[in-house]
Amino acid sequence: MRDADFFRHWMAAVAASVEREADRLTELDSPIGDADHGSNLLRGFTAVVAALGAQPPTAAPGEVLQLAGRTLISTVGGASGPLYGTLLRRTGKALGESDEVSDAELRAALAAGVDAVAQLGGAAPGDKTMLDALEPGVAALGTSYRAARVAAENGALATVPMRARKGRASYLGERSIGHQDPGATSSALLLGALADVAEPEGAR
Amino acid sequence: MLINSAQSVVADALRGMAAAHPDLDVDVERRVVVRRDARDGGRVGVVSGGGSGHEPLHAGFVGYGMLSAACPGEVFTSPVPDQMVRAAGAVDAGQGVLFVVKNYTGDVLNFEMAAELAEEDGLRIECVLVDDDVAVTDSLYTAGRRGTGATLFVEKIAGAAAEEGAPLDRVASLARQVNESSRSFGVALSACTTPAKGSPTFDLPDGELELGIGIHGEPGRERRPMMSAREIAEVAVGAVLEELAQIGPADGPVLALVNGMGATPLLELYGFHAEVARILAERGVPVARTLVGNYVTSLDMAGCSVTLCRADEELLRLWDAPVQTAALRWGR
After folding, report:
1. Residue B54 annotated among the catalytic residues of the structure
2. Coil, helix or strand for A126?
């Protein structure tokens, strides 16, 4: 079972990997976006860690993720603020109020979160967006957390030959082909951090 | 760059606006710029916002006869819903608030969330999307036409109607009419440099230009060897007129905005406008009013855009109505 601390650790791990990868995310965002994905997410997840630190320690797992989502919406801006914020809020809502959740419940909740992202952004897999990492990643959670990380990373890599149909990269048309999508890349970081926290190196 | 640090550019600029324009209430912390007398007179509020880097859009248009408030985001990043909720609350005089939103995924999502929250607070909110950029032709496979130069026309005319005391539904329908009657096309002669990245957002060699750009330093649809002002005007005006013709047959004059992207001198911009005016005259398009200058910019990008709006007598009257803002002022 996973308690609230597990989710706090997950968010802290996302903040750490976003900090590590911020320059790369911004670099990926330059040819097909506007060169700010890394700095925007860094601002957001730094605020998430601060907000969770101020949250009562009795908060349930679902409340942890809902606060994280609200904080992203209030601090990130752009499309990624509402999209990542909705992902975590909806996942948190789906977790309900229990103090501990099973891996199966987390899997189902994340699937609901990903559906909400698809609905809000109007995107489908293949559009060269976050969903191209989130969908295969969350689907592979049925196998293991590590499988989810690999599937999400492969999903992000698979955006390279895609033509963007949503977001700012879509204005480039054919010229968006040949670049890895920054949103799919950061989505893979999110699931990678989940795998790190759920199955720490050497634990199995 | 003339900055203290990349992290503080937006806050620093807001502190400067506050110092220069005492008739604006500038909340540097929460990033909301409000006209001090926004609530006097029981008018409809007109609120816009968007990423920073397009100055004077939007905060430069806050004041008498135009915007009630503006919400600047990070550079090229839409503001967050909290800003628009705060702005709406600060300007609402019981007559409702119009949100003017440029059509970019981030802006649309954040303004939609803000509208929901403000409505939960009991405010009446209408949203108008601005999507005038004809360079985005393939709207089925993109996020749709971008909002660019027409934003100025929408904000001026909606603001004038609100100033006169028009009700919310009328202000919103005028704003939509302006957007539907406007088309734009932009050209970049150089890329721009965001403070966060510190180097050009895309690689555009000397001797080449980029056709069909937006206003966020993103590359356009097509790259070509450098052209003369005359040739660029032919492409830009041609593209705009072609799309305007699809709205319906011409039935009157146009408002013309010849807009600089930030780093093109007015000397060049007026020379470019001479070509625009000549082409419009040759094509038999009467121009009722013209604005030449840097209004909807993209940081330090060199280049220009052309926006034409088909204007009936009512739109012309509202365009001519007095306005007093940091960047646009006449008639008062």
Report:
1. yes
2. coil
User: Sorting pLDDT into bands at 50, 70 and 90, what band is A149?
Assistant: very high
| pTM assigned to the model | 0.94
Q: Is A124 inside any structural domain?
A: yes
CA B148 to chain centre: 5
Q: Taking CA atoms, what residue in A is nearest to B107?
A: A78
Do residues B127 and B111 make contact, with C-beta atoms less than 8 angstroms apart?
yes
CATH number of A114's domain = 1.25.40.340
What is the dihedral angle through the alpha carbons of B15, B19, B21, B23, rounded to the nearest 10 degrees?
90
Q: Is residue A204 part of a domain?
A: no
| End-to-end CA separation in angstroms for chain B | 36
Q: What local confidence, expressed as pLDDT, does residue B219 receive?
A: 65
Which domain does A108 fall in, by range?
A: 2-198
- Please report whether residue A23 resides in a domain: yes
Number of domains in chain A: 1
Answer whether B217's CB lies under 8 Å from B201's CB.
yes
ipTM: 0.90
Picking from A34, A163, A167, the nearest residue to B76 by CB comes out as A34
B217, A35: Cβ pair inside 8 Å? yes
Catalytic residue selected from B21, B54, B58, B273? B54
Residue A174 is predicted with a pLDDT of: 84
Taking all residues of chain B, what is their mean pLDDT, rounded to a whole number? 95
A203 within some domain = no
pLDDT digits (tens, 9 = 90+) for B123-159: 999 999 999 999 877 655 677 889 999 999 999 999 9
Structural domains in chain B, sorted by start: 9-181 (3.40.50.10440), 182-310 (3.30.1180.20)
